[in-house]
Amino acid sequence: MVRHSAAQAPNEARSYRDIPRPPVWPVLGAAPALRRDALSFMLEARRAHGDIVAMPLGLRPAVQITHPDLVRHVLIENSTNYGRSPMTDRLKFMLGEGLVTADGERWARQRRMMQPIFQRDKLDGLIPIMTAAVEDMLVRWNVLARSGTPVDIGAQMGQLALDVITRALFGKSGGPLAEDVIRCIPILQEYTASLFWTFNPLAGKLPTPNHRRFRAALATIDTIILRFIRERTAAGAGDADMLDALLRARDPETGAAMDEKALRDEVITLFLAGHETSANALTWTWYLLDRHPEARDRLEAEAAALGSAPTTAGDLNRLRYARQVAQESVRIYPPVWSFNRLALDADTLNSYTIPQGTTVFIPPWVLHRHPSWWEDPERFDPDRFTSARSAGRPRYVYLPFGAGPRTCIGSHLALMEMQVVLTLVASRYRLRLTSDHPVSAQALITTRPSNPIMMRLEPQAKAS
Ligand code: HEM
């Protein structure tokens, strides 16, 4: 494998205009190509032009970086020079100023307050909650399996991940109110996905039927979340679920609690950031497992060896292969295919000066397929993540959860959830694709299958 360093760049100063670039439109820049097929465009841009590529968005400067040294520079060493991109701002009308959309001091304060809630050792109590959500799904699956009805696995994993995050946030008090949230969240998700590649400034503002449906769903969710918050505040926060933890959170520097608006923004952010990504990762994993029976057999053997549903951190420690499967699945199909930063001031990347206001794309989709760091990158091989084979791999070529101060706050939760779901489902069912056709990936807010993935549920005792 050829390994090269970003530091090998020549010493003379070069400007943004000198950065290699794919052919793009005069005024629109790379926007049409990104909208048509961002995944292929970004991959090909790296292959043809290297680890720093200019990709102007209309008349605004933008670059893609795919070298671990450059990624470290932007996300870690000079992270204070890189803020939220305007693409993220577009979610503010829905998420308010929650962790995903907030910036500057407000973000730093919220992150300080929420970080302890998501530490790995604080999450063990969620394992039985996850197991219970899967068991409920498996009861529904009994009926479908008996009638031989194939399932849309994306829809099933979406419902499951939403159920998990609802139970985690609201615990037992969820009940019928949470059902309304569960009904409305997919409406928000579909609406924001439909706007994702729209560059029309009026998009999202016109009173189309979809827009009205979206506003109604958002209003319903807001009412329910505020009701949960008010009831809980009046009763006094206990120690039962994440809502309690958010109510009890205090800024370690000032001792202040979150106000009602901040709580609302964080709860809706956790709902949206915490379920579509996980659902996506699980969906692709079932797809990959059916196409790689040797990996599926090992996962099933590990699940059988555990002998019961995972309920403790000790159980998860024994499920090493399930973890590797999850890690490899989010390498091949990273749910967040690219994340972006905005340069607050001019900076030098690989000896090119990029102007203030440059959007920097950091695409896990491309980094995870970089032939300098991954052997046979398109091959599904969970053993890449054994400690022996991970040793020596640069940290910043594997970014399913980002890195640096804004790294995913839910990464431990997400990996635990994947381990629990994969193990418990694999112990009861073998999921078989109904068609041999390869499924392609589509870049929306997350990396989605371009068509529904239909699977048959074979009860394990009968699976051959
Ligand atoms: C497989 C599942 C998941 C993936 C692949 C994923 C991926 C990511 C990535 C790449 C980022 C960083 C984006 C950036 O740097 O701009 C991020 C941020 C975030 N994620 Fe996740 N995520 C997952 C699950 C979750 C879950 C389960 C939660 C919460 C329950 C969550 C909550 C968040 C939040 C709040 C942020 C913003 C953090 C900040 O800016 O301080 N994510 N996620």
Automatic annotation (TrEMBL):
Q: Which UniProt keywords apply?
A: Heme, Iron, Metal-binding, Monooxygenase, Oxidoreductase, Plasmid
Pfam families on file? p450 (PF00067)
Domain of life of the organism encoding this protein: Bacteria
Coiled-coil residues are: none
**CDD domains documented for this protein:** CYP132-like
Q: Which family does it belong to?
A: Belongs to the cytochrome P450 family.
What protein name applies here? Answer: Cytochrome P450
